[in-house]
Amino acid sequence: MASSKKGIPKNHVIGFILSLVMTVAAAWAAIRSDLPVTWVIIGIMVLALLQAGVQLFMFMHVIEAGSGGGHVPWNMMFHGFALAAILVAGSLFTMSFGFDHGDHGGGSGGGDEQFEEQPEEHAGH
Amino acid sequence: MAAEELKTGPLEYRSQEGRMGILGFWIFLGAEVVLFATLFATYAVLFGRTADAPTPAELFEPGIVLIMTFLLLTSSFTCGLAVNEMRKGNTKGLTIWMVITLALGVAFLGFEIYEFVHYAHEGATLQSSAYWSAFFVLAGTHGLHVTLGIGWAILLLIQIAKRGLTNKTSRKFFVISLYWHFLDVIWIFIFTSVYLIGMVI
Amino acid sequence: MHITDILVTGEPIIYAAMVSIALVTVAIVFLLTYFKKWGWLWREWLTTVDHKKIGIMYILSALAMLFRGGMDAMMMRVQLAFPNLGFLDSQHYNEIFTTHGTIMIIFMAMPFLIGLMNIIVPLQIGARDFAFPYLNALSFWSFFFGAMLFNISFVIGGSPDAGWTSYTPLSGAAMSPGPGQNFYLMGLQLSGIGTLATGINLMVTILKMRAPGMKLFHMPIFTWSTLVTCFIIVFAFPILTVALALLTIDRIFGSQFFTLTGEGLPMMWANLFWMWGHPEVYIVILPAFGIFSEVIATFAKKRLFGYNAMVWSMIIIALLSFLVWVHHFFTMGAGAFVNSVFSVSTMLIAVPTGVKIFNWLATLYKSKIEFTVPMLWSLSFIPSFILGGVTGVMLGMAAADYQFHNSYFLVAHFHYVLIAGTVFACFAGLVFWYPKMFGHKMNERIGKWAFWLFFAGFHVCFFPQYFLGLDGMPRRLFITNIAEWLPLNIISTVGAFGMGLGFAVFVYNIYYSYRYSERETTGDSWNGNGRTLEWATTTPVPFYNFATVPYVDEIDPYVRMKEEGKTTFDETKLKPIHMPSYTGQPIIMMSFLGLASFGLIFEWIPVAIAGLIGGVVMMIVRSFDYDDGYYVSVEEIKRIERKARGL
Questions:
Q1: Mean pLDDT for each 10-residue chunk of chain B (201 residues)?
Q2: Contacts with C529 (C-beta within 8 Å, 6 or more apart), sequence order
Q3: CB contact under 8 A, B44 and A88
Q4: Do A105 and C340 touch (CB under 8 A)?
Q5: Interface predicted TM-score of the whole assembly (ipTM), two decimals
Q6: Given CB 3.0 to 4.6 Å as the disulfide criterion, which of A67, B118, C160, C239 pairs with C184?
Q7: Do A43 and A72 fall into the same domain?
């Protein structure tokens, strides 16, 4: 933290404003806009990921040399989020594939599409 | 164990013990990410399984959820300011900002309890269907974390009032600030993937 | 509520167990009182935060659990060999295979390995204790109370009976009412908290407390395996925590996650369970690989072949372990595409595992092997484990798995990997590091008897089970009086008793060695073959481990130290050592949480709340506790070191 001699540090204010703006944008996209549902979902998940980044990097000092933690904090966060994506996408993949599409349709169009989409949509949990 | 004590830098990083405590907490947060991810996965898989209960689209209202989100976002900001004051050595500033943070947290909890009670009146309870079980447990786990955080922060404010800012108290306070910001991260994902997507689909 | 509503009644075997539990408890209380050892027990053990003592407590508990799980196993084998004897009834049989599996994985394998890690890892990296000694004690007591809760189930309230996987809807409130399944849920939950805490604790210890100069790629391979294991623990255990919590809420508070009503999805339990369960398999096998690597390098008297490949293969195994969970339920019917994806990822794991096998063989190649007891366990591991591993690849083929699934072929497979891998490693590690823990070696001659009995018993027991499986005998079957199966079942039972005998000889060896073994005078117990820092300490290890911490900048630093005639001790560099104080808080806090769990098991909510309040009060007490430990003076260190080193 370089700029902490007086008052409120600039990057905290920027982070706060950014998170407010992104929240409003996500809410607008979901509630008011006429965008296709798939795009809304992808868009607001990306916004959520960006907001998580704001919290981690601007508020939580995830990379701060003085901590002596080296790469470990962001490493744990990165792998945590990667595993989160695996858990959510993998669960949806395993649990819905066979049941939603009555046949065993290995190559059916619907199944493939679903598989392609999930990792992105839910990459952020 | 308290091997090298640094003479400069933030108080919480000066002792080996402080650095290890904070690092350990980061690892714990990694585990927390997975904990919530499992709840999100359960929620996603059980989505739409509302049985005879109302659907989320019928019950979710943008207004109250946006208020809750802004409350929590602001509390994360004020919590960051409290840490900023701590690094300047200003106990009073820290206490003021943290009390504001906790007040916002209590307001958030109030809204969440109101929301849960409202849903229960409409016929959506923990027991009513798989979807609502997943919803209440996911949101409730987050709410429980916020509650524990408030209790924990109050204990720390008492300790800081008693002992001032030392290596140890600032390490403890830094750790709870990480926890508080992290709860905001989780809430953003609940807001997005539970409420917003629940209103879209 | 009447007492007979809580106690399990009507089974002679269980009455006998009750009587023996009561007698053993009375005997322990009597002995402690008679020899006036209560104060000693409290001061030296129950309140300790010393990693070496906590490790010993872990290992003793794990041996007790191995006995309990082994008794279950032999009762099952008796039933299967003599199905018409009426030895067990079907309910009792269900309970026994459930507790056998759960105890062996959760309360035997993991604590045994965590116990070895506790003792050895700080010594290997030149640390004086864990990063968080208080948390370490907390972990142990959470494991201990979790294990006790689970173990009393068979006399109080009734054991869980839905298998160690506890699949829903069978394990849900509708089909398994009563406290049985709750014992499973709360016992695992309580000990799971401790395991997660240990994972974090060891990770910070290894990352931050290594001797100066020791880079990650200078670390002994057992420490590496521990680090990778902790990484898996941190990311896998929260999944179990959530899965158990959801099922608990289902059972006690009426939610609908895994129910057949309210559009619940019972198969989601299997999904969550194995997302934890598969990484769990690697949590118990990777440290075993680490132990074998240490033992093989030591008694081949060579540096481990392919150190870097060993490390990277472990890391790759850890990453892959999160990508294969569906192979445990191929037959669920998720579809050919899903099964194919997970079939491929499963078979990929064989590659890094193969790398490790060849590295061990290459280490042995052209070396002067010394056939000590730990080396025998390690050498026998390689071919036995390959038998388990190759059948694992067979099971990993989704199409073929429809034939193998839940047959004795599967039972034989996972016993081959878990016993030849984990259990052999536990014995190898215990014998190998025994002198570091207790100051004397285990008797080699009796140790070899134990090894050969157990090893032969193991193969006689489990090899026929592959063929039983191929003959169509399903797992968890109670009545097996089919003519083609009977001979193989009888052979298998003979083998099981051979293993039981081997374990008995092993335990006898502990007693025999305590009485008669020569006491160690040097720290380097295995004829001076030690390669890593733990052998550079004196035996018994002083409570602060290292009076002066050595500078390390290579793999196997102790080899060069010995060549140059150096020790880790440098009297001119002595400084006061900071140590943490012992405290009774961990055991008290965890006994409160144990009480809370007990309340939840019987759904006595006031008891649960009381226990929870007690636990929270203890946490608040901890928060306000600013005990900073104490310093050991230079004079005292000098006195201890001079005595230990005979200076």
A1: 66 88 95 97 94 91 93 95 92 95 97 96 94 97 97 96 92 95 96 92 79
A2: C298, C299, C301, C370
A3: yes
A4: no
A5: 0.95
A6: C160
A7: no
